[in-house]
Amino acid sequence: MPQLASTSLGVINVGLAQFAEAIAAAGGRVTQLDWSPPALGDRTLGMALARLTRHEKVEPANEKAFAAFLGVSPVLRGVGTAGETLANMGERMLLHAGPPVAWHDMCGPMRGAIVGAILYERWARDAKAAQKLAASGKIAFSPCHHHGAVGPMAGIISPSMPLWIVENSAGGARAYSNFNEGLGKALRFGAYGPQVLARLAWMQKSLAPALGKALAALGGIELKPLIAQALIMGDEVHNRNAAASSLLLRRLAPALARARLPAEKLAQVLDFVAGNEHFFLNISMAQAKLSLDAAHGVAGSSMVTAMSRNGVEFGIRVSGLGERWFTAPAGAIDGLYFAGYGPADAALDLGDSSITETAGFGGFSMAAAPAIVKFVGGTPEDATANSLRMRHITLGESNVFQLPALDFRGAPCGIDIRKVIDTGIEPVINTGIAHHDAGIGQIGAGLTHAPLACFTQALAALEIEVNA
């Protein structure tokens, strides 16, 4: 006691900040701990969480799922056409981002992208006829995720569209994504004007065949080394892909030069890829999908294997819970807007690109990309803090993808629904912002979070599943 009385004491305050303020006002040293009760203080949810902690089925299942995720060796294998490549892709079917959603419930950008896809496929003469066809029930709509694919923002994939093919060289499984159109007025943001449709037609007829020839000559491109290098160079391979796109072009250019393309066609291909810093995004998404699919379907696992949004709902899938989606209303995005636009113009959270965060990129790897804050808002310190916070809700770290700002520790990955509920930390996502009306396109970019309600539903379902 005498020693204690002679020591300069400090106070750690847990909970209400007012207690800390009173101590500080009296001249005391106080540290405010940012804490909230597990499971949001919900007793029923907290008991379910306790029963699933150190569970005899869940722990080994997570080890198996996480090891499968880390063990994937993704290779950019080639280029295909959606109608010929994707399983169960119907002749009059359009794939979209996020959980299932019907035409009459879709947000404006997704409706606009669907109108554009119908015009691109020449199923209708004009936008009015395309809208009528979409509402008629004669077009089938299905999530990209149900076909082994992903698409950014509206995520629309139609039968004639070219796709990237990413293959696991360790097992042969494949995942797919469409091609990136660039920023601004693009189909994925709901724009469908003549310029958008002309670009899509050129991508189908010229860009895709040229890139297919180059990849065939190369025998594929290993993606893990490329992404690892891009992270060290300042990317997070969701909203910043400047390094990854450049590294990809460096690999493709010699093969394109040897493909005996007409000089003007070669120049157009090189100009397009070089001028689109987001070109690699769709490849990043496909390799993330491939890796997470390898972890899916492990009975008892609490690892999240997909996060996606359709502009109306946010949905997650969990390894041990089959093909079910656990959904909550899509959230707003806090971000930076192009001149003339603001939050009142924005659509809600949208797109399959949050598959990158699910795999440990994007918001989870923002510490590697301090320049991203100029695009989505915040400060470099905020970017690092986001990566550090995500460590609290993940099963581990990448054994390949390192973050220089964090002493080259691996990117946090393997979201555990139990840890999300325990800490109350919602997975962070950086994303583009589309206008809420069809036909306008991108108006900004920013940050959002996966809603906690998705994880509470999944936790309740997992407890039933492991005790069945």
Please bin the fraction of helical residues: 25-40%
Average per-residue pLDDT, rounded, comes to 94
Q: Which ranges are low-confidence, i.e. pLDDT below 50, for 5 or more consecutive residues?
A: none
E-strand count: 18
Ends distance: 55 Å
Q: Characterize the main sheet.
A: 5 strands, mixed
User: Regarding quaternary structure, how should these chains be classified?
Assistant: single chain
In the CATH scheme, the class of the largest domain would be: Alpha Beta
Strand content: 15-25%
CATH topology of the largest domain: Enterococcus faecalis V583 fold
Describe this structure in words.
It contains 17 helices and 18 strands. The protein has 468 residues and is α+β, with helices and mostly antiparallel strands. It folds into three domains: 33 residues, no CATH class; 197 residues, v583 domain like (v583 fold, Alpha-Beta Complex), CATH 3.90.1700.10; 215 residues, Alpha-Beta Complex (Enterococcus faecalis V583 fold), CATH 3.90.1710. A five-stranded mixed β-sheet has the order 6-8-7-3-9. Strands 12-11-10-14 form a four-stranded antiparallel β-sheet. A hairpin with a 5-residue loop joins strand 7 and strand 8. The N and C termini lie far apart (55 Å).
